[in-house]
Amino acid sequence: MTTPPATAVIDKDGLHALVAALLADGRTVVGPTVRDGAIVLAPLESAAQLPYGWGVELEAGRYRLRRRDDGAAFAHSAGPQSWKNFLHPQRERLWSADRTPDGGFTVHAPAEEAPSYAFLGVRPCDLRAIALQDRVLTGGHFRDTGYGARRQGALLIAAECTTPGATCFCVSMGGGPGTDSGFDLALTEVVDAAGHRFLVRAGSAAGAALLDRVAHHEADDTTRSAATTAVSEAAGAMGRAMPPVDLRRLMGESLTADRWNDVAARCLTCGNCTMVCPTCFCTTTEEVTDLNGDHSERWQRWDSCFDLDFSHLHGGPVRSSGRSRYRQWLTHKLGTWHDQFDSTGCVGCGRCIVWCPVGIDLTEEVAALRAESAAAPGTAEDRKAEPAGPEKHEGHEGHEGQQGKEGAER
Q1: Region 380-403: what's the mean pLDDT?
Q2: Using CA atoms, how far apart are residues 387 and 383, in angstroms rounded to an integer?
Q3: Which of 36, 71, 273, 286 has the fewest CB neighbours in a 10 Å radius?
Q4: Residues 124 and 90 in one domain
Q5: Is the pLDDT of residue 273 over 50?
Q6: What is the extent of the structural domain holding 364?
Q7: Residues with Cβ < 8 Å from 283, sequence gap 6 or more?
């Protein structure tokens, strides 16, 4: 095997050859494609199914496809799904049990092998989300073995963002439209007078080996400059920004803020934000039996802190009001994630804004909480005397205790 250059260039035919090589290896290639009026993530049979020439128009509570005139494959923002749907599926069988003739029972582990995934077109914000879920689901005492098996064999092919949407705010969350790590291959799409091509960087030995199987040439200055400029311009074209404030501290100071009443008047507690969020990880389990009681199965499925049963105790739900449930979601995502995992739980993808049916915008809510906190007597002066930046706390390992976050309010 020859060693590919540090940066290479492939054309559209090279991208098709890349997908063909992955399929030939027996991998399940998942990437963006147009379906049901949206750009969704789905298994691909060839690169021809990529959304060439399609973009999206985004706003709070609004998503529309739009035609582009340049034929780009990755010039769109995040859709309704994330890679969580494949690594941490909505429903997964944990085990089954069958009654034996002697009155006992036998337990069977799932027989299905984890797919050998290749994810094509992973945005930098979603690379960060995958890294966060890695830490939550495989980094503690209680590992999610199903997630670990699917994640271990997954090949990640990133697509740097050159066309951010109106609801994107990854830069203000410490990320950006470009990426330097966490991928096996990284593509930056360039469409100009010189043609349609992709700047490619290998980030692992597996990525380098894959690139070596595809026709490519060493990156030229024109392509490298065009790719760098496109990513740089995207960083300055974010449609949203999180206010520049210590989010963890603000969330802790705002538990009794009046703004929660305002958002509660609009929130439907539907849980859409948790379903589309690429880092929300909470689950519950359910038992399924046949009618005669000879066969039983335990299934794990996604849960949401907006569900009344999520915090149900012997006396009823701990958080029965919409106010308390929205507050739980936002303060955990932006605040107490730091206590558990030493980082924020938000990557700035904007999905929760787009897919909220009433258009609730968490950047707007944070700005309002900040304004209310600043207007409180003595608060601004007290903050001036405090050191900047979040305090470091030793986080809990793993994802145990998911339903016991902060705050109890009926």
Answers
A1: 38
A2: 8
A3: 36
A4: yes
A5: yes
A6: 247-384
A7: 300, 301, 302, 303, 402
